[in-house]
Amino acid sequence: MAVSLTKHCDTPPFADHKDLYNVIDATQLGDVPWQSFSVQYTGECPEVVPPWMNDEFEVWYRDPRAMAYNILANPTFKDEINYTPFHEYNASDNTCQWKDFMSGDWAWQQADTISKDPETHGSALVPIILGSDKTTVSVGTGNTEYYPLYASIGNVCNNVRHTHHDALVIISFLAIPKRYDTDKKHSKDDVFWIFHCQLIHSLLSVILSSLKSAMSKYEVVHRGDSHFRRMTYSLGPYIADYEEQLVLSCVIKHWCPKCIAVRTDLDSGGMYHCCEHTDFIIGELHEDILWNEYGIISDLVLFTNDFLRADIHELLSFDLLHQLIKGAFKDHLVDWVAKYLKAVHGTKRAEEIMSDIDRRVAAVPSFSGRDFKQWTGNDSKALMKVFLPAIEGHVPGDMVCAFYALLEFCYLVQRNVITEDTLNQIQDALGCFHCYRKIFGLVVPTFSLPRQHSMTHYASNRHNDLGQMLVTNQRLDKLAAFHMDFNRNQGDHRDPEDIPTGSYPWNEGKLQVFNSASATFLAPSDPSGVSGMNEYTCNDCMQGLEVARIICFFSFIHNWEGYLCALIQWFDKIGDCVNEDTGMWMDGSQNLAVIHIDTIFRAAHLIPIYSSEYISHSLKFYHSIDSFHSFYVNKFADHHAFGIAS
Asked: Which residues of 528-560 are buried (b: 16+ CB within 10 A; e: fewer)?
């Protein structure tokens, strides 16, 4: 303590914690203060006034325009911001590819629009990206729930937005009256529901109001590279779950907030919603027709009506976690499996099969979770990685293929770089999913489900949804280069099997065996992407890589040079192609070998091939590698594995 005070002449820099807080609060750099206001119902009241009509709802927010200033002026981002839209092409085949938001068609259209207006001509487009989600930590006390509202700008490169917290900030906590409070009779009223929805739109309009003036006339903003530039703002994609999308678009449940497809057959297609069309039919049709035949609520005012160049139907972007992973995968397909087994085998037999599926999940190496009681996003994503092999043998092949197609779709749309070939693969995966999900027709009355229907909008770029799809990517990194140097420039290049055992070098020194080890695999990240390292593609399966199990690490010294090695057990590939039902490579255990640790590329995840046999109740996940002889190479373990083993 005395040493640390020397540079302050033995006087602490702060008198106490209050002094410290005062200094922090007085700092102007990067400061966007929180503000608050209260709102209250002002409409007509019935004779018996429900509690929510008298309540005041407090809202806290920060100026989104000041938030955008801070991001644009941050010197950390000066080389990671795109001020103009651009197209990017693969030099090898001249095909288009998309990575950052400003490479999407929506950004081009917006930039063209502001360039035609004399008040905004010559300025850079700054799209404000929004997202909201009620989480477990946002449930307030009393009769109010708080929804955090997040914001970023579309100019920031994806690798920065995904890894740097200063590029994605909370700008508000939306105060929303609970739909089901202690007075449930009133919370189910149509008047309450209308108030609940309109409150959200009114709050968003007020919170974002500081952006309006810079939407119609550019302003000069200081950038992180110390230069100044003209900027014009536009509302960009709004990322939300399906339930929130309904409120934001004023669309009724079971309808699509993006298109006017009939709710009883969503996947049959329909033209996209647009504000002009919605405003026209609201003026021409009775509210009952709007409700029953178009799924539109006519007596709500959209917050986007207050902002230039903003169409909520165009801006809505789907939340991949809630729409597909928790929605289509867990809430639909996983539950349908249980219903199917019960319908085909009866309750008792179905419970036995589900128990074995649960044991298979628990037996997956390095995955000890079982009996998922409370489903969270992380639980759903973890189960998605291992569920496919767990059901194989217990359900029909088409059902396994349906899961495989959905997983393929989920991983493809999360790729950090989307190519024209990727778009084709996404469309193919969607077609396969629609084909194979018919197997569930025995227990599912309709496949016209909004969350599954949202996949068609991921797969289609007819309405320039690509830019929005890029924003929703939830992965942090990507695997852009696969390079293994199999031909050393020095040493003996002969096949070890051709060298007589007696000719091997003899080592009389000690072997140092490491009983435990920790390995960190640094997978290539965004700098090695579209504009970085060249991609190395191998024609062999799994990029020419082999799978091995490490028995132990050891080292020794020979001729004054140290060697770091590993004793491994090879896993030989079964067949020349992936399994057609699961899309995974299959491996079987083989002989032992010694390798240098420099030849280890990254971790692999193996899942036993269970076939149709039940597994023992006593089997633990750490026994699986020794208890089974053939395995799937799990390409759904993470996005890097998906890139390698696809």
From this structure: bbbeeeebeeeeebbbbbbbbbeeebbeeeeee
**Helix 397-413 and helix 377-391: axis angle, to 10°?**
140
Rounded to the nearest 10°, the torsion over CA 634, 416, 521, 375 is -60
Q: How many residues does the chain have?
A: 646
Measure CA 642 to chain center.
15
CB burial class (10 A; 0-12, 13-18, 19+) of residue 169?
A: middle
For 125, the 3-state DSSP assignment is strand
Inter-residue contact 319 to 133 (CB < 8 Å): yes
Cα–Cα distance between 478 and 414 in angstroms, integer?
9
* DSSP symbol at 56: E
Tokens of 376: 């969270």
Q: Residue 183, Cβ neighbours under 10 Å: how many?
A: 14
Sort residue 194 into left (φ over 0), alpha (ψ -120 to 50) or beta.
alpha
Query: Which DSSP category does 280 fall into?
Result: H
134: number of Cβ within 10 Å: 16
Q: In terms of C-beta distances under 8 Å and separation of at least 24 residues, what long-range contacts does 17-21 make, across chains too?
A: none
Strand partners, 418: 98
What pLDDT was estimated at residue 442? 93
**Locate tokens 């005012």: which residue?**
301
Least confident interval from 16-20, 107-111, 378-382, 522-526? 522-526
298, amino acid identity: S
Q: Which of 414, 438, 450 is nearest to 323 (CA)?
A: 450
Average pLDDT over residues 109-131: 95
**Structure tokens of 103?**
């490479």
Q: Which two tokens stand for residue 112?
A: 């063209």
Can you say how many angstroms the Cα of residue 453 is from the centroid of all Cα atoms in its chain?
18
Tell me: the pLDDT tens digits for 375-419? 455 677 888 888 999 999 999 999 999 999 999 999 998 888 889
Q: Which of 366, 384, 367 is nearest to 375 (CA)?
A: 384
* pLDDT, tens digit, 9 for 90 and up, residues 130-147: 998 766 444 455 566 778
